[in-house]
Amino acid sequence: MPAKTLFIVQQFERQGKRLVAGRQMDFKTAQEAISRAERDAARVSGVVAIQQTIDTDTGEVLEEPILLGRHGDLPAEFNDN
After folding, report:
1. d(CA 28, CA 32)
2. Residue 81 pLDDT > 60, yes or no?
3. Neighbour count for residue 1 (Cβ, 10 Å)
4. What is the pLDDT of residues 58-72, one digit of tens each?
5. CB 39 within 8 A of CB 55
């Protein structure tokens, strides 16, 4: 079971009163993802940087995602972390 750690930045944008997922980007390191999320914070309604480990054969998530950074208005699932 080969595992891979992903570093993901997910943007969120407002559509009326709703927040919807915008662009998602992958990075090689946690620091790259954190830095990008910080830069994006001024341009989008909200943004998170997440670390996630997956099984590369099945795509199955092996561990709970780790929240590396969050900025702005976010969906409720990111407020409890």
Report:
1. 7
2. no
3. 8
4. 988 998 999 999 999
5. no
